[in-house]
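Explain this fold:

***
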Amino acid sequence: RRGVAMLHPAKLAWGLKRACLELGVRIHEHTRGLDLVRSGSGMAVRTPYGRVFARRVALGTNIFPSLVKRIRPYTVPVYDYALMTEPLTPEQLASIGWKGRQGLGDSANQFHYFRLSADNRILWGGYDAIYPYGGRLSADLDQRPETFLKLAEQFFTCFPQLSGLNFSHAWGGAIDTCSRFTAFFGTAHQGRVAYAAGFTGLGVGSTRFGADVMLDLLSGEETARTRLDMVRSKPMPFPPEPFAWAGIEITKRSLAHADSNGGHRNLWLKTMDKLGLGFDS
C-alpha cells in the first residue's frame, strides 16, 4: 500500500519527451547509433546521417547492442508477451472481486502480471519469456501466436468466471536481461561515457535511479549511489552460443519445474543461487 505506484509507461515516455523539448533538448528519433568514438575532449556518436557530438554520453540502449562493445556479452534479449481483454461489464467486474484496482502479479518464478485499464479491460502478460537463438532481434518476434494461446488458457484458469471473454489486443517486445536479473552500471572512454543495462523488465520503476547513477558516474565524484555493491559490481557475462541458449533453456525449465513442485529448486537453480545468478541473487 505504500512505496509503490502504478503508471502508464507510454504516457511517462511522452511526458519525459515533452519536458526535454521544453528544456531545449534536441531529440533525434528513428536514428541509429552506429559507433561511439573519441572526438577531441569529448565523444561523437556516428549515425547514418552524420555525427552527434557531446562532452559526455549516457547510454541507455536497453536491448540494442551497446556502443561500448565490451559489455555486449553481459546482456541478451528476451521477448515478453501480453494480452488485453475487451472491456468487462459491471457484472463481470463484480464477479472477480477486483474492487481496489490493485496492480497484481503471482509469486511464481515464471510469473504473470495483470492490471485493470481505465475502461475496465484486463491486461494479462508474462510467463513465457522467449530467448531467440543468438540474441536475434526482429519485429517478426513481437507476435507469437503459440504464446498468446498459452496466456489465454492461463487467463481462464485464473478467471474461470470470465469464460467466453474475448481478447482485443495481443503484442510482445524484447527486454534486455543480464545474469543477475537486475541493472548494472559502468563507465568507458576514461569516464566520458556511462552506461546502464540489464534491467530485465524492471526498468519503468528503476530507470530514474539508473539515470542518477549515470550522472554520478559522469561527474567523477563518489556518491552514496556509486558506493553501492550493485553499482560497483558486474554480473557474469553470458557464454557464446550454443551455451547461452542451452543455459537459458535449462534455467527456464528448472523454474517451471520448481513452480509445479511447491517451489522445490533443483541442483541447477541451487548452483545458480550460490553463484549469485538469477532473481534470487
The radius of gyration is 21 Å. Residues 83 and 170 are 5 Å apart (CA to CA). DSSP finds seven helices and eleven strands in the chain. Helices lie at 9-22, 90-96, 145-158, 203-219, 229-232, 243-259, 267-275.
